[in-house]
Amino acid sequence: MRVVDLKIEDIAFGGKGVAREQGKAVFVPYTIESELVSAEIVREKKQFAEAELVEVKQASPDRVEPKCPYFGRCGGCAYQHISYEHQLAIKWRQVRDALQRIGKLKNVPMRPIIASPKQYGYRNRITVHAEEGVIGFYRRDSHQLVDIEACPISSDEVNGALADLRSQPRVRDGHYTLRTSGSARMFSQINDEVANVLRDLVVNLVPPNQELLVDAYCGAGLFAKALLDKFEHVIGIDWDKFAIAAAKKNATAKETYIAGEVETELEKVGAVHPNRPRANDVHTGRLRSIAPTTIIVDPPATGLSADVRKAIINLAPTTLIYVSCNPPTLARDLRELREKFTIDSVTPLDMFPQTAEIEVAAHLHA
């Protein structure tokens, strides 16, 4: 393999620096735009190459000392070498660029990125792997484990659970999810402080005195339950029956939670009539007699399926709020949804400091 000198021009989504050698893009992790580096080419494709950092010859003023002794080996974090202020700038720019490049959206109404109150110690759960006495996380782009004694981006309680696991005389090979005592055992956001800010943001985006909310991918009802005062009726849909069971606990008469596929259940809500729903429709989960005035979607990283996008367009809500953990799939979906909706605002949130992950809330109206 050969070593080349490069100037980093940009940071790609996913966290790797981008340079060019003889016109070909070269991706180099743990670098910052404007830096001069030497790097070893480790994989070369027709359109691009991948390299490993050998030396930083001219460092960016935004380069800082990582706080984690495993950084650069563990595959969890990509940005610990970058000042937090610059991490935020990179993520904001990556959201904008994805919307412009993939979504073909011009003049995107971007709001400032919302920072995390905690840059370290924020994770309320982690999943570690055990194999032949090694307990930790996988290396970047590898299935080789790095032995981890503590994770600096995780809370003290989570690291205490990791220490307890490591202290056991014999740990079976497998995967172990370690969480804080208050962390739910179904899908939930891993940064409690930013999750609360996201919830409040969504609440503020929805106007008062609405009739029907459909909260797709609702989980345990983070958004639905926070919005009860603004709606006469709320339907939550999620494939996770355990999350739906949690949402049903202490549910009010105006709440209906359905365990099922989002595509199927959205189609069932699709018959639109101006009348109010009958009481038995509310309680049996068959609200079909009024149009939803607001739809919230918070899909997995794969984004919305074509069927879900079609169902949303057919339902034609007045307000659509799209919460995404993957700007490229968000951009793809907004490209189609913009045919029926106008984008009012796009707000990035830093749910995952020190990593390349980004949370985004997009607010649209019909």
Describe the structure concisely for a colleague.
The protein is α/β, with parallel strands linked by helices. It has helices spanning 84-101, 156-167, 192-205, 222-226, 241-248, 262-268, 279-284, 306-315, 327-337; strands at residues 3-7, 10-11, 17-21, 24-28, 36-44, 48-58, 125-131, 134-138, 145-147, 174-179, 210-216, 231-238, 255-259, 294-297, 319-324, 342-349, 359-365. It has a 7-stranded mixed sheet with strand order 13-12-11-14-15-17-16, with helices on both faces. A 6-stranded mixed sheet has the order 1-5-6-4-3-2, with no helix packed on it. A 4-stranded antiparallel sheet has the order 9-8-7-10, with helices on one face.
Explain how this protein is built:
The chain is of the alpha/beta class and 366 residues long. It has helices spanning 84-101, 156-167, 192-205, 222-226, 241-248, 262-268, 279-284, 306-315, 327-337; strands at 3-7, 10-11, 17-21, 24-28, 36-44, 48-58, 125-131, 134-138, 145-147, 174-179, 210-216, 231-238, 255-259, 294-297, 319-324, 342-349, 359-365. The protein has a seven-stranded mixed beta sheet with strand order 13-12-11-14-15-17-16, sandwiched between helices. Helix 6 runs parallel beside helix 8 (306-315). The longest helix is centred in the first third of the chain and has 18 residues, at 84-101. The radius of gyration is 23 Å and the shape is globular. The model is unreliable at 271-289 (pLDDT under 50).
Outline the secondary-structure elements.
Layout: E1 3-7, E2 10-11, E3 17-21, E4 24-28, E5 36-44, E6 48-58, H1 84-101, E7 125-131, E8 134-138, E9 145-147, H2 156-167, E10 174-179, H3 192-205, E11 210-216, H4 222-226, E12 231-238, H5 241-248, E13 255-259, H6 262-268, H7 279-284, E14 294-297, H8 306-315, E15 319-324, H9 327-337, E16 342-349, E17 359-365
Parallel strand pairs: 4-6, 11-12, 11-14, 12-13, 14-15
Antiparallel strand pairs: 1-5, 2-3, 3-4, 5-6, 7-8, 7-10, 8-9, 15-17, 16-17
Helix pairs in contact: 1-9, 6-8
